[in-house]
Amino acid sequence: TEAPVKIAVTGAAGQICYSLLFRIASGSLLGDRPIELRLLEITPALKALEGVVMELDDCAFGNVVNIEIGDDPKKVFDGVNLAMLVGAMPRKAGMERGDLLSANGAIFTAQGKALNEVAADDVKVLVTGNPANTNALIASKNAPDIPVEQFNALTRLDHNRALTQLAQKLGVSVNAISHMTIWGNHSATQYPDLFNALVDGKNAAELVDDQAWIESTFIPTVAKRGAAIIEARGLSSAASAANATVEHMRDWVLGTPEGDWVSMAVPSDGSYGVPEGLISSFPCTVKDGKYEIVQGLELNDFSRSKIDASVAELVDERNAVTELGLI
Ligand code: NAX
């Protein structure tokens, strides 16, 4: 029998995980491969997490071999092959950006160190918790024995948001769209790129043929969608964030579809002028569990300036966490 894939998920009693865990357990991530879930929470949330585990039990998912919970990352991450770092400290009213970075720094330095010590050598770490790119950088820097390529951050939700906004504008199915890219930071500065996207094989920006719509409607709608969801729902996006987390990890493990790419925030190798080491979103393909940044795309002046602005924000965040001594 096949050894179960050990999957760590943090923030397991939170709202994203209330969708995510059930998607993973039902096979959306790895099909019918046996899995073991390792769920991390902070101590006060362990009781709520026990309730979530009761519900997982009550689904009687056949692929779930074992579920373990705990508040010690060194125990929970022991031997894990996949780690989805969802739990983070949300920004509260009156909190400065520095406060947010240091609160999350404490979480992601500890989790990076624990992964370094006890995770499987081939561990793939995907950070969803915000600020996702910089949290992934912090975790990676605190895990010097794990190759940087094994740390990603999530921009797939932004990617999916861009697909649907474009599909609705053109009155086509999302299936007609390929080669969508989110560049940069998972933040309001992100750049969803229609100039390299295709709709039924034709250039998306040319089909839209409306630069004002791209600049004043499409980009802000995608970039500020999280705030719009909070405004409408009274809670931040959870099911869609869970869906994107599953899709990113699934594609990273099983590969991207032939002839297309996806958006993944990965450590820059200097591609497209993004400073090496920053965890920035790029168009990526995956084969045999290894991603590659798609090379050779053309960037017009508009795209270049948008990418530069988002990357500048990532540089600022890196400088801030360096000054805080987190990396
Ligand atoms: P919730 O506040 O519902 O859940 C977070 C959970 O994390 C809580 O149960 C908390 O106890 C736990 N937690 C906190 N510190 C922890 C630690 N050190 N170890 C383990 N668990 C810990 O938030 P939720 O709505 O689930 O969102 C989680 C994170 O995802 C937030 O940072 C949020 O900003 C981020 N998001 C990221 C998105 C993305 O596309 N990258 C989109 C959705 C979401 O906004």
UniProtKB/TrEMBL annotation:
<dbReference type="Pfam" id="PF00056">
    <property type="entry name" value="Ldh_1_N"/>
</dbReference>
<feature type="binding site">
    <location>
        <position position="111"/>
    </location>
    <ligand>
        <name>NAD(+)</name>
    </ligand>
</feature>
<comment type="similarity">
    <text>Belongs to the LDH/MDH superfamily. MDH type 2 family.</text>
</comment>
<dbReference type="InterPro" id="IPR001236">
    <property type="entry name" value="Lactate/malate_DH_N"/>
</dbReference>
<feature type="binding site">
    <location>
        <position position="104"/>
    </location>
    <ligand>
        <name>NAD(+)</name>
    </ligand>
</feature>
<dbReference type="InterPro" id="IPR001557">
    <property type="entry name" value="L-lactate/malate_DH"/>
</dbReference>
<dbReference type="GO" id="GO:0030060">
    <property type="term" value="F:L-malate dehydrogenase (NAD+) activity"/>
</dbReference>
<protein>
    <recommendedName>
        <fullName>Malate dehydrogenase</fullName>
        <ecNumber>1.1.1.37</ecNumber>
    </recommendedName>
</protein>
<feature type="binding site">
    <location>
        <begin position="128"/>
        <end position="130"/>
    </location>
    <ligand>
        <name>NAD(+)</name>
    </ligand>
</feature>
<dbReference type="InterPro" id="IPR010945">
    <property type="entry name" value="Malate_DH_type2"/>
</dbReference>
<feature type="binding site">
    <location>
        <position position="130"/>
    </location>
    <ligand>
        <name>substrate</name>
    </ligand>
</feature>
<feature type="domain" description="Lactate/malate dehydrogenase N-terminal">
    <location>
        <begin position="5"/>
        <end position="146"/>
    </location>
</feature>
<dbReference type="Pfam" id="PF02866">
    <property type="entry name" value="Ldh_1_C"/>
</dbReference>
<dbReference type="GO" id="GO:0006108">
    <property type="term" value="P:malate metabolic process"/>
</dbReference>
<dbReference type="GO" id="GO:0006099">
    <property type="term" value="P:tricarboxylic acid cycle"/>
</dbReference>
<dbReference type="InterPro" id="IPR001252">
    <property type="entry name" value="Malate_DH_AS"/>
</dbReference>
<feature type="active site" description="Proton acceptor">
    <location>
        <position position="186"/>
    </location>
</feature>
<feature type="binding site">
    <location>
        <begin position="11"/>
        <end position="17"/>
    </location>
    <ligand>
        <name>NAD(+)</name>
    </ligand>
</feature>
<comment type="function">
    <text>Catalyzes the reversible oxidation of malate to oxaloacetate.</text>
</comment>
<keyword id="KW-0816">Tricarboxylic acid cycle</keyword>
<feature type="domain" description="Lactate/malate dehydrogenase C-terminal">
    <location>
        <begin position="155"/>
        <end position="322"/>
    </location>
</feature>
<feature type="binding site">
    <location>
        <position position="161"/>
    </location>
    <ligand>
        <name>substrate</name>
    </ligand>
</feature>
<feature type="binding site">
    <location>
        <position position="97"/>
    </location>
    <ligand>
        <name>substrate</name>
    </ligand>
</feature>
<dbReference type="InterPro" id="IPR015955">
    <property type="entry name" value="Lactate_DH/Glyco_Ohase_4_C"/>
</dbReference>
<keyword id="KW-0520">NAD</keyword>
<feature type="binding site">
    <location>
        <position position="91"/>
    </location>
    <ligand>
        <name>substrate</name>
    </ligand>
</feature>
<dbReference type="InterPro" id="IPR022383">
    <property type="entry name" value="Lactate/malate_DH_C"/>
</dbReference>
<dbReference type="InterPro" id="IPR036291">
    <property type="entry name" value="NAD(P)-bd_dom_sf"/>
</dbReference>
<keyword id="KW-0560">Oxidoreductase</keyword>
